[in-house]
Amino acid sequence: MENGFNSWRWSVNNTLNPGGYQNWTLNKPDNVNASEHCGIMWNGQWDDVFCNDALPFVCFNGSTDPGLKNYTFVSTNMMWPQALSHCRQHYTDLAMIMDEDENTAVASVIPPSTAVGVWIGLHRNPWQWIGSGSRFTNWATGQPDNNNGVEHCAIMDADSLWRDENCELARPFYCRHDFKTKVHRIKLTLQTGANLSDPFVYNQIIQQIGAKFKDKGLADFKLIWKPQKV
Ligand SMILES: [Ca+2]
Ligand SMILES: [Ca+2]
Fold first, then answer.
1. What spacing in Å lies between the alpha carbon of 213 and ligand 1's midpoint?
2. 181 falls in which pLDDT band (50, 70, 90)?
3. Which of 42, 51, 62, 219 lies 20 to 30 A from 194 at CA?
4. For the segment 60-71, what is each residue's pLDDT rounded down to a tens digit?
5. What is the pLDDT, as a whole number, of residue 95?
6. Which ligand is in closest contact with the Cα of 163?
7. How far, in Å, from the CA of 129 to the mean position of ligand 2?
8. What pLDDT, on a 0 to 100 scale, did the predictor assign at position 228?
9. What is the pTM of this model?
10. Do residues 23 and 97 lie in contact, with contact meaning Cβ atoms separated by under 8 Å?
11. Ligand 1 center to 151 CA (angstroms)
């Protein structure tokens, strides 16, 4: 539950626990096969597992403040995203746990006969672009695999495909440069009998105006023309 942008957080407010309480099983979370991004309670402690596993879950009604939650066990097996929707539809959200008392309260609503882990509201976004909300990915087959549990940064190979790698390896890198775009509007009056809505005529005029711009030494521009009848 660190402050990193892809750290574990609670679904109800998508934020970290300000009090810092956590109750992971020893050596968890371990993100096996780089595919464990949702949290369960198992024997009163937490583990990260595959979000598409179908499991029972615990919802809560109440406030995000400690001690103000009523927990409810739902025995229907669902994947984490469906369990989240169910809790939000019928209760406040998937279980949020702020301290030891709340952890005990969640554990106490899970029937002792439950032989599997139980979803709680823990989740994380494993990969994010720094400084961008882009969701585009281009992973190589089998990647990311978090090999040896230490691959938390991404590289692009000569085949343009991505692989997760150890962040401490020294490698060449790409930087990002944002180009500023300027928009200019020019009003032209044409006297012509041609049909200006004809795509052929449209392209002819764009090409001729573009050629004039190039004659004047302009290199990087895009022309858009909107005919208006007078
Ligand atoms: Ca795990
Ligand atoms: Ca890898």
1. 61
2. confident
3. 219
4. 999 988 889 999
5. 97
6. 2
7. 17
8. 74
9. 0.66
10. yes
11. 16
**Cis peptide, bond prior to residue 29, ω within 30 of zero:** yes
200, 210, 217, 223 from 213: Cα distances, Å: 20, 5, 7, 10
Q: How far is the CA of 147 from the centre of ligand 2 (A)?
A: 5
Q: Specify the 3-state DSSP secondary structure of 15.
A: strand
Ligand 2 ion: Cβ-proximal residues, 5 Å cutoff:
145, 147, 151, 163-164
Domain ranges of the chain: 9-123, 130-178, 181-230
Q: What is the pLDDT of residues 111-148, one digit of tens each?
A: 999 999 999 999 988 787 877 767 788 999 999 888 88
**Are 160 and 139 a contacting pair, CB within 8 Å?**
no
Q: How many residues does the chain have?
A: 230
Print burial letters for 94-104: b (CB count within 10 Å at least 16), e (below 16).
Answer: bbbbbeeebbe
